[in-house]
Specification:
By secondary structure, this protein is of the alpha+beta class. It is built from 26 helices and 15 strands.
């Protein structure tokens, strides 16, 4: 599971936290800001997107062997990059190749409005790994005509078949992931996980017939395949060497084998060996064996995420999107935050869950702050800020999980400059001052509690299937909301102060609650077009958590809707009662998950998480017009350049800054395109 950054609030700064010492925390913030002056994090801004750079702190302190390991792992990740493009939409690779050829070949007027629109469209396509918006999943609308593009194709002798060309402009496949109620979500989703004419019913019937060898350790059926119909018969096309995406997977394997040769320890090497075997065979039992080995490999400075993992892009939650994140441990920060994983059992024992839904023995929970060295696929250019894996419930219960917060990504975001939105949407000066004083700490702790305690908490009832089977298209948003609620419940708790994580638990908790309600009920709406429903899993969960708490607290005026000077604000009048409401909702969401109660999750999400108050939405969009900063942030990766001797042996790996977003995207297409444009 991954946690995406939250728009409109002060994002966490994992690098600046000092346990139990508020004064030290302030001093470090000032020092970091001074350091940021020497490094320009901002790259460019276009449409609704801003692009930043990030640094890799401590790179020169790594040994040559560690630098090689990071380099090989980043190359493995980038080698599979095009898989994500094809997974997102069947025409993406053809369209990208054509648009890039036009961009690099066109010698005509580059000052016209049409050319500027073309350039912006291409950047948006790069950012989204395809022609659907990375967050809303709506098809991107070009602000140039089809006639103009035809002219560009002709002038640059660029080929683009009629089907792919028409896909740019027509109304078909308008939604990459369609989560609407009462429709055939698979048939109406453009994502390339399913072949033509495959329906919801087909998917459910196909996987209902799948039986795991061990019922207590269910395999992740569908995770690494495309489901198609051939002569009316459903069939999986497995992602593996010699199978679907085999050409790119072979390149990934080549680099993973080099990484295995410089593994830091035996456990890490064994895990990499199992990942290689999985890519070669596509065997889901090997995938589970790998995840068990990877979860247990906690020693060393370097770690990684690589493969088909998160299922947010599948409307039914089966198929994993390709992604890669290479991580260097920040030992100082990881040690400071280790207290959360060390006390995971206390949090479980003291949660408001029904006794039968609590884990008696929380095992193998690790939490680290890491510095990213490179990302690819579903993690780039738009990146998470926190990740908890593996996703299989039985592995979490029996073996444990790894949680990481991406420290240098958050640091880059914090140092890129303030947007000013906070001042516009806070209810009063007190709320603003609390956020300025405790905002970064509050949001950091929420991320940590979400990933470390939230996703590791709770258990399924005996005999209840995996959530993708029981909760179907609501599984992802329920899980993210459940983890959010765990964090919210404990953020307003003196235990955090007892553990030395804060010096004033009440103020930190108030700050966190203010920010969550403000974002869930108002600020995140800047990401939607007026009239749109909420589709994305994280946005849905923030809205249904906030909306449910607002409604259930009306009788006691827990959260007050304030109208002042024609503007709407939300003010929390009773934080203790809101804490209890979050606990009540947490208990219910865990019950829904534990029992597989589809009707209850449907009522919760559809009742509070999908529809938007149109008057508030219009007001939010109008108030947001004054701000130039884009609502979405993405990143270019540092460039790792190996330095070799006369024998061709790597003697050092240097880190260089990318020249631009355009340059990095064109370079990636040139160096890491291993798939044909037609599949």
């Amino acid at each position: 599971m991954k946690l995406k950054s939250i728009v409109g609030i002060a994002i966490i700064n994992l690098m600046l936290f000092s346990c139990g010492n508020e004064k030290a925390d302030k001093k470090e913030v000032v020092d970091a800001s001074k350091e940021a002056v020497a490094f320009n994090y901002n790259v460019e801004q276009f449409a609704d997107i801003k692009i930043l750079k990030y640094q890799i702190p401590g790179w020169d302190k790594l040994t040559l062997k560690e630098q090689k390991l990071v380099y090989y792992l980043t190359q493995a990740g980038l080698s599979g990059r095009d898989i994500m493009w094809d997974q997102n939409y069947r025409y993406n690779l053809r369209i990208r190749k054509a648009l890039e050829h036009v961009y690099t070949s066109y010698a005509g007027d580059k000052t016209s409005t049409d050319w500027t629109s073309f350039e912006t469209y291409l950047k948006r396509v790069w950012f989204s790994n395809g022609i659907h918006h990375h967050y809303s999943t709506d098809k991107l609308k070009p602000e140039f005509s089809s006639e103009y593009l035809k002219g560009l194709l002709t002038e640059t002798s660029t080929e683009l078949d009629s089907e792919a060309f028409d896909a740019i402009f027509n109304a078909e496949d308008f939604k990459k992931v369609n989560q609407a109620k009462g429709v055939d979500n698979v048939a109406l989703s453009a994502v390339n996980f399913y072949g033509p004419n495959v329906t919801n019913a087909d998917v459910e019937s196909f996987y209902n017939e799948k039986v795991s060898p061990n019922a207590d350790k269910p395999l992740s059926f569908g995770l690494n395949s495309q489901l198609v119909k051939e002569n009316g018969v459903l069939k999986e096309r497995v992602y593996k060497s010699g199978g679907l995406y085999g050409a790119a997977i072979d390149e990934v394997v080549k680099w993973l084998e080099l990484a295995k040769g410089v593994a830091e320890n035996e456990a890490q090497g064994n895990a990499l060996g199992l990942l290689i075997d999985y890519y070669k065979t596509g065997d889901l039992q090997t995938w589970d064996d790998y995840n068990v080995a990877w979860t247990g490999a906690t020693a060393g400075n370097i770690d990684y995420i690589n493969s088909f993992i998160e299922v947010y892009n599948d409307p039914l939650g089966y198929r994993g999107s390709y992604e890669s994140i290479i991580q260097i441990n920040d030992f100082d920060m990881s040690q400071k935050m280790k207290v959360l994983s060390d006390h995971a059992q206390w949090f479980e024992d003291n949660s408001p869950l029904m006794p039968e839904h609590k884990k008696e023995n929380v095992v193998g929970v690790t939490y680290k702050v890491v510095n990213v060295a490179g990302e690819a696929g579903d993690a780039s250019p738009s990146t998470p800020i926190g990740v908890n894996l593996p996703n299989a419930n039985w592995i979490r219960t029996a073996v444990g999980s790894k949680s990481v917060s991406l420290g240098n990504i958050v640091n880059a975001s914090n140092n890129a400059g303030s947007t000013g939105r906070l001042e516009e949407f806070v209810n009063d000066e007190e709320e603003l001052l609390l956020d300025e004083e405790y905002g970064q700490l509050a949001h950091k702790l929420h991320t940590a509690l979400h990933e470390v305690i939230g996703h590791a908490s709770g258990k399924l009832n005996p005999g209840v299937g995996e959530t993708k089977e029981t909760l179907k298209n609501y599984a992802s948003t329920l899980e993210e909301g459940r983890a959010d609620l765990v964090g919210l419940y404990y953020l307003y708790n003196p235990k955090l102060q007892e553990l030395g994580l804060v010096t004033d638990w009440e103020k930190v908790g108030k700050t966190a609650y203010d920010g969550y309600i403000r974002n869930g009920l108002m600020m995140q709406l800047i990401r939607l077009n007026l009239g749109d429903d909420v589709e994305e899993a994280h946005m849905r969960n923030r809205q249904w958590v906030s909306g449910w708490a607002f409604e259930k607290g009306k009788a006691d005026n827990v959260i007050e809707k304030v109208t002042r000077d024609g503007k709407t604000y939300f003010n929390i009048n009773d934080y203790a009662k809101l804490h209890d409401l979050f606990g009540e909702l947490l208990k219910e969401t865990q019950r829904i998950k534990s029992e597989g109660d589809y009707k209850a999750v449907e009522a919760l999400v559809e009742g509070y998480g999908v529809k938007v108050d149109q008057a508030i939405h219009a007001e939010v969009l109008e108030r947001n017009k004054q701000f130039d900063s884009a609502p979405y942030t993405g990143y270019v990766n540092p460039i790792l350049v190996p330095e070799t001797n006369d024998a061709g042996e790597i003697i050092k790996v240097n880190v260089e800054e990318p020249e631009s977003f355009v340059d990095q995207m064109l370079t990636y297409s040139k160096r890491y395109s291993f798939l044909p444009e037609v599949n």
